[in-house]
Amino acid sequence: MPNPRIRSDLSPILWIAAACLALLVTGLPARARAFSASVLDYRTIETSGGISTVVSADDFEDGTIDSAAWSIQGTASESGGALHLTSPGDPLPLPSPLVGEFSRALGGVLARGAGETRIESTWAPAPLAPGDYISMGFISFDSSFRPRDQVQLLFSNVTTAFAAVYGGSPGLSATLSHVRYDALGVPTVLQDQTQQIASIPAEAILFRITMAASSDSFIASLLTDSGNSTLAQFGPSSIETSIGHLDHLIAGSIVPEPATATFLGLGLAGLSTWRPRSASARARSESRLTCGARDHDRSA
């Protein structure tokens, strides 16, 4: 399958979503801190003529990830009636001083029928630490099986460090991004909306993306308690004609680069223990530098 081409000029959270969905990831070692999130269930439902049909579903009850249904990136396990996406994950291609990791369950391609299509996933209630995020999305394809539309619904706890690099406000937010690719794979941002959220809900969080039957558009919602309370709702936005979708369940973390903090700490420690050398030692050092010698002083 072709790799989506990701541009660095996409807006902050949209850029994370695009990086998460990219099938090509860097080979750099992951250095973000630990993260964990759990998906309680997933389902795709098609409704036509007043009849709803579950096209695919997984309640993660059998304790084994269905390898025929899900392809895993990063680390994932199934136990206790949930799919757990945890660190260590695959590295996100982020600019210094940020580093990030994500773990993803990638589902199969579905042929879309003539009716309404609804994709849902329910996530266990769990606090999002600063830098953590959870997400669900899909990619639709044209008749030549080229990526056409990339839609991502993201719930994140943005850090001050991330906001300093990309802009926006630190704290909890829900974001919907919609990117369209042309025949050459060049992306265009069609929709990028963010809503700030006051607090993390204690109930389970429900992601829902509904593609309308009458037109190729979608509405995305972030809900709690299986839809009894709405955290955020976006749309509609046109996705044009597609033949299917590829589903993603993603959890990850983005934090300041640990190496930066370590370097500063070592620098301060070095300064605090540094002692001036004697005048004779400085003179010998200056003499060696003048001659270009790099060996250590062997005199007593």
Question: Can you characterise this structure?
Answer:
The protein has 300 residues and is α+β, with helices and mostly antiparallel strands. The protein contains four helices and 16 strands. A hairpin with a 4-residue loop joins strand 14 and strand 15. It is globular and about 50 Å long. The termini are far apart.
What does the secondary structure layout of this molecule look like, with pairings?
Blueprint (H helix, E strand, L loop, with lengths): L11 H10 L14 E13 L2 E8 L12 E3 L1 E5 L2 E5 L3 E2 L6 E14 L4 E8 L8 E10 L5 E12 L1 H7 L4 E11 L5 E10 L8 E7 L5 E8 L4 E10 L5 E13 L1 H16 L5 H13 L9
Antiparallel strand pairs: 1-2, 1-5, 1-8, 3-7, 4-5, 6-7, 7-16, 8-13, 9-10, 9-16, 10-11, 11-12, 13-14, 14-15
Helix content: 10-25%
Strand content: over 45%
- Low-confidence region ranges: 1-10, 20-30, 259-300
Structural class: alpha+beta
The CA-CA distance between the termini, in Å, is: 67 Å
Helix tally equals: 4
Dominant shape: globular
Number of strands: 16
H and E string: HEEEEEEEEEEHEEEEEEHH
Overall pLDDT level: 76
Major sheet characteristics: 8 strands, antiparallel
What is the CA-based Rg, rounded? 24 Å
